[in-house]
Amino acid sequence: MSRSKPWAAGVLAACLAIGCGPRRPPDILVVTVDTLRADRVGAYGHAGARTPAIDGLARQGILFGQATTPFPRTTPALASMLTGLWPHHHGCREVGRPMSDSVPATLAEVLGAHGYHSAAVTGNGAAGRRQGLHRGFAVFVDAPDLPGPRAVHVTRAAIQLLDSAPRGRSLFLWVHYVDPHFPYSPPKGFRDQPNAPACHQLMARLVHKKTTLSAIQGDQDGASSAALPDCRALYDAEVAYADQEVGLLLAAWRKGSGSQSVIVFSSDHGENMGEDGLFYEHGPSVHDASLRVPLIIAGVGRAGRRDDGVARLEDLPPTLLSLAGVPRERWPAMDGADLSERITGVSAGQGGAPRAAFAESGSHLKVDSYAAVRSGNQNRETCVNGPRFSLCESQRWPAPRLFDHVADPERRNDLSRRYPDEVRRLAEAAARWPVYETRQRTLRTPRFKLVERPRLEGGYAAALFDLRSDPGESRDIAAGHAAEVERLGEALQAWARGISAAAQKAHTLEELEQLQALGYID
């Protein structure tokens, strides 16, 4: 942290002068719930939702109906939320990887220099000190510091941070809940326990090693799609449990904070439930099931409003710095836009309406994700996948091996001598597509969404969706909108050019062990 002390000292001197005025900067509470789809929240139209705390917050503030994450995995998304930077600018482009030390300042560091006391608690081990998300927080309760990841432990720790915060200083508190993350299992003592035998059986098969995460997420035997109604019910129960804990936290916050208070509610990403062929998972898809997140801001502006313009997680740092009264010249460079004018209705001549949201997916971390062009991780096994064959490399083998993943999904029989042409074709594809850089990418406007997916033979296949008439992204209209595809494609390619200079390194063995313990990989 010493690298930013000269900068921080100058900001502190200037900002404390402002803080000595008649009105103290507002307290700020940011609550994020891991893996929360916007469309499973009552305020976002889900009729079966049991989310009274979140819905009540929406009635008290502004709801952004089309908010998105720049990356559908935890660490990169939350790093963007805390820095205002796109993942390829803060250096974390995969779950569990740390932010770059070159990030000039985080939201917590800038607020701390402005006189705030910053504290945080996170229930997800992929969103902690190892990833650099603690930067700027005077107190940071990491997942290993808690008795367990359940929301009850996060709430208790957060209330303790609230009670122990120094009086007389504005407080910035970030609280991250890990529920609802697969496997969906609301606590046994929680009142909401749906009868969901098919999903319980699916998860039991995983626990007893009769199936794998890849098999579940790819619906390899049809069990995942058959269990979808039950798994949705359990997911909703997990959301209801998280909402209960959020309600307890909000009650404690309102009791303990000052009259001037800004409350933000959001998520790091959503969850695919069959969309894009992906079940009970997020990361390798840029479908809105994973990209669209709830975003509610209360405590400022007129209550009970909805804004369906572009809004992004990376917009939160500039927005909160503006609402906190931090002079704009003291902000670090950020990719996010200041949304405060849209929240307060008071124009400062600064704009506040980003025209598009960009995002890229993560890589396919599970090696038997055969529907992807590339799958696996370099420290274990990787494959390049065609419609029938996969060419796979492993540190256990002296040369790549070819498998018929349709007939031999467990990759037992090497067919490389029998099909040399397939080996050659897939080897050429592997050279075109580095394992960690083979990803989907997208550009999203208030109406259109352009999605580009890697093709085995090189380049990207583009699909265009009209989100107003087809929010489920079921009808590709690219053929009838060539000009729109070209216009959005040029913008997406210009954005993506910045990614090539930030190629993601392979996970370390220690990081892979941590991801396996957290359930991200088999």
Radius of gyration based on Cα positions: 23 Å
CATH class of the largest domain: Alpha Beta
Tell me the fraction of residues in β-strands, as a range. 15-25%
Which regions contain 5 or more consecutive residues with pLDDT less than 50?
A: 1-22
Q: What summary fits the major beta sheet?
A: 8 strands, mixed
Shape: globular
Structural class: alpha/beta
Averaged pLDDT, please? 90
User: What is the CATH superfamily label of the largest domain?
Assistant: Alkaline Phosphatase, subunit A
Strand order of the largest sheet: 5-4-6-1-7-10-2-11
- Tally of individual helices: 16
Count of beta strands: 20
**What level of helicity do the residues show?**
25-40%
- Reported by name, the CATH topology of the largest domain is Alkaline Phosphatase, subunit A
Q: Could you say how many structural domains there are in total?
A: 2
Give the name of the CATH architecture of the largest domain.
3-Layer(aba) Sandwich
Rounded to the nearest angstrom, the distance between the terminal CA atoms is 36 Å
Descriptive tags:
single chain, 522 residues, alpha/beta, Alkaline Phosphatase, subunit A, 8-stranded mixed sheet, 4-stranded antiparallel sheet, disordered N terminus
Summarize the topology:
Blueprint: H1 5-19, E1 27-33, H2 52-60, E2 61-64, E3 67-68, H3 74-83, H4 87-90, H5 107-113, E4 117-122, E5 139-141, H6 151-164, E6 171-177, H7 197-207, H8 213-217, H9 223-226, H10 228-256, E7 261-266, E8 272-273, E9 279-281, H11 288-291, E10 295-298, E11 305-307, E12 311-312, H12 316-323, H13 340-344, E13 357-360, E14 374-377, E15 381-385, E16 389-394, E17 401-404, H14 420-432, E18 441-444, E19 448-454, E20 460-466, H15 482-496, H16 509-518
Parallel strand pairs: 1-6, 1-7, 2-11, 3-12, 4-5, 4-6
Antiparallel strand pairs: 2-10, 7-10, 8-9, 13-18, 14-15, 15-16, 16-17, 18-19, 19-20
